[in-house]
From TrEMBL:
One of its GO terms (molecular function) is D-glucose transmembrane transporter activity. It catalyses: D-glucose(out) = D-glucose(in). This is Solute carrier family 2, facilitated glucose transporter member 4. The lineage of its organism: Eukaryota, Metazoa, Chordata, Craniata, Vertebrata. GO terms for cellular component: cytoplasmic vesicle membrane; cytosol; endomembrane system; endosome; external side of plasma membrane; extracellular exosome; insulin-responsive compartment; membrane raft. It is found in: Cell membrane; Cytoplasm, Perinuclear region.
């Protein structure tokens, strides 16, 4: 709970603070299984790089026949590998445009259910690629699983943000990122050559993504639909009331429903927006700019360069066991994401994002210096490891989790799906650019590539400091009102409906 506030009893006519119920836990867990798959497919392609490249070469030789020219040309292999990595982001870019349409048409829960068909298809193609002696199947499977992940990256934060109580919205929203990094870590561990990262078993490693898809298909039908979607978007008061009762555990949800009614009344003056309407809207220009730039700060920070190419980066730094160092980075990744779950509602979104950007900038500079001095001072390999671990840790404090769920906070129910589509597309576009170009840029710039990331991080820090508001402890309506040029509403603290009473300014604010 933010300092400066205390929990108080319920006042007459006001609902108590929503407690964490079993159904709420089940709903959040079921939703973030999609994020787990997203993370798994980010990390799964890294550790078995050498054996997959060897498989590509064998497929190439098999197609050339005995009289062929020989092994696959290095330039062709580099292109095929970069495409295998980056095509994942192309799928995400394309599908992210459909988030708003699908979320409104099917609803949040049903859209997540239907999305698993892509996970099963993509996982199947990747798992059968070696049997079919076709690297085209692997690339196509990566594209399809990328399309799945593109939809997931918008649907999961939207659903979790809409079902979460206000006082837990940040913490539950961070679980989306926690599931992503756990997925990355699982992929890194299973990708070891002592487990599934072998010439025979790497197809199984890539195909395992169907398992969380199956579990989500089993669990999601028992979860409620978003009451905000049901009441505000579909005008279904009865189902919305039933969903609220399941999520809150209250017999009487009139107070929570009254909040939705007020939000709907506000929305009636601001009709649901399509993607073109959102892009033309002057009212939403500032929050949309903030949402897009925060997504850029996540991807152009260089973090996916570390995720995709960490093994080769550690090799360049002279680390003897780069695969295990990569797993160490994954453990740091997960630990600091867990830490951010507890910090986000206390320190606030803006503060953590600024701290993360500043720390990553410092680590990128340290990484540049360490790589430059590595040949003359071999011990600088340890400094490289510290820089990468610090880079990952600061990322998960702020720039990792916050851009995903803050988009759902910056927009009211009407423009939210279209805004999620725009921000997700921005994220995936940058993901593709980094995944496709990093190896070439790194070859051209050498250690100075991390200095480029440091400059970008400094720019994002300045933007966040000047433009990004704090959304901690404020309802969706209060946040949206702040962008309608009524700052007093953004300055209001949460009243007794959420059991909070203002006791004075926070000394940290």
């Amino acid at each position: 709970m933010p300092s400066g506030f205390q929990q108080i009893g319920t006042e007459e006519g006001q609902p108590p603070r929503q407690r964490v119920t079993g159904i709420l836990v089940l709903a959040v867990f079921s939703a973030v299984l999609g994020s787990l798959q997203f993370g798994y497919n980010i990390g799964v392609i890294n550790a078995p790089q050498k054996v997959i490249e060897q498989s590509y070469n064998e497929t190439w030789l098999g197609r050339q026949g005995p009289g062929g020219p020989g092994s696959i040309p290095p330039a062709t292999l580099t292109t095929l590998w970069s495409l295998s990595v980056a095509i994942f982001s192309v799928g995400g870019m394309i599908s992210s445009f459909l988030i708003g349409i699908i979320a409104q048409w099917l609803g949040r829960k049903r859209a997540m259910l239907m999305n698993n068909a892509l996970a099963v298809l993509g996982g199947g193609l990747m798992g059968l690629a070696q049997v079919a002696a076709s690297y085209e199947m692997l690339i196509l499977g990566r594209f399809i699983i990328g399309a799945y992940s593109g939809l997931t990256s918008g649907l999961v934060p939207m659903y979790v943000g809409e079902i979460a109580p206000t006082h837990l919205r940040g913490a539950l929203g961070t679980l989306n990122q926690l599931a992503i990094v756990i997925g990355i870590l699982i992929a890194q561990v299973l990708g070891l050559d002592s487990l599934l990262g072998t010439m025979d078993l790497w197809p199984l490693l890539l195909g395992l993504t169907v398992l969380p898809a199956g579990l989500q298909l089993l669990l999601l039908p028992f979860c409620p639909e978003s009451p905000r979607y049901l009441y505000i978007s579909r005008n279904l008061e009865g189902p919305a009331r039933k969903s609220l009762k399941r999520l809150t555990g209250w017999a009487d949800v009139s107070g929570a429903l009254a909040e939705l009614k007020e939000e709907k009344r506000q929305l009636e003056r601001e009709q649901p927006l399509s993607l073109p309407q959102l892009l033309r809207s002057r009212i939403h220009r500032q929050p949309l700019l903030i949402a897009v730039v925060l997504q850029l700060s996540q991807q152009l920070s260089g973090i996916n360069a570390v995720f995709y190419y960490s093994t080769s980066i550690f090799e360049s730094a002279g680390v003897g066991q780069p695969a295990y160092a990569t797993i160490g980075a994954g453990v740091v990744n997960t630990a600091f994401t867990i830490l951010s779950v507890f910090l986000v509602e206390r320190a606030g979104r803006r503060t953590l994002h600024l701290l993360g950007l500043a720390g990553m900038c410092g680590c990128a500079i340290l990484m540049t210096v360490s790589l430059l001095l590595l040949e003359r001072v071999p011990a600088m390999s340890y400094s490289c490891m510290v820089a990468i671990f610090g880079f990952v840790a600061f990322f998960e404090i702020g720039p990792g989790p916050i851009p995903w769920f803050i988009v759902a906070e910056l927009f009211s129910q009407g423009p939210r799906p279209a805004a999620m589509a725009v921000s997700s597309f921005s994220n995936w576009t940058c993901n593709f650019i980094v995944g496709m170009s990093f190896q070439y840029i790194a070859d051209a710039c050498g250690p100075y590539v991390f200095l480029l990331f440091a400059v970008l991080l400094l720019g994002f820090f300045l933007f966040t400091y000047v433009k990004v508001p704090e959304t901690r402890g404020r309802t969706f309506d209060q946040i949206a009102a702040g962008f309608r040029r009524t700052p007093s509403l953004l300055d209001q603290e949460v009243k007794p409906s959420t059991e909070l009473e203002y006791l004075g300014p926070d000394e940290n604010d």
